[in-house]
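Fold in tokens:
===
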Amino acid sequence: MGAAAAVALGCGLLLGVGAAALLGAWTAPVHVDRADPALLEAAQRAAARARSPAALTPEAELALRAYLNLVATELGLLSEPAHFVPAGVDGGVERVVLRWTLRGDPLDLPPLLAAFQHQRHAILIDRVEVRAEPAQPRGASIRLRATLFRPWLPDRDHMLAVLRTRAATPVGQHRVLLAAAELYGWRRFAEVEAAGLVEARARGADLQRALPAALVAAREQGEILRWAADSGLIRAAGAGASGPSLRTGVAPTTSSAGDR
């Protein structure tokens, strides 16, 4: 969503004004006689109260990376650095894709995934791939992909510069609009995060049911094991494995909060 739309919708949420009217008015200069200190204070307080520690801020990203590395080390898994990649903004919320590669005993994968459920962030596991070989039962390649969320918040300096250029209003009024845009971003994030937590728990439960027996077989026979949120669990013969490829009967979990 563009900055102007976020400001208009955020102000609508804050002031109870129709978002459509605000969007229409955005194209013309806005004339206000004076900035309202009380309104500015209320807007900033509302935005501050809406902030959530569940958002994957840059600081939270560093903490989560350290946590994942610690869990992998405790389980005896060798891991490459986890990569967090921005994956687009939709409706005021930014998706972030986590990609992580590890090596070790595939039987340690379920407790690793269980550790994801103890984080304050909604971590939606999208895909899991395990490549095991009978000759190296504790040297399987493990790849994970997951989706996390954070609010789209306007760059304060850029937004204020745009407002000074396009709106004939006092600086204090510009800051009201900025706070309203931040409030909109945090409220949209709260909605998506709540749905994401439900979906993350459902996917985690599916994985804990589907993986253990399949991982034992993959470890013994050298199979390639894949799980995806939209297709469930698939087992395929790998190098050194015998027998045809097969798909399990595990049904995938689907939700609007999934990997969109």
In short: The CA atoms of residues 207 and 224 lie 16 Å apart.
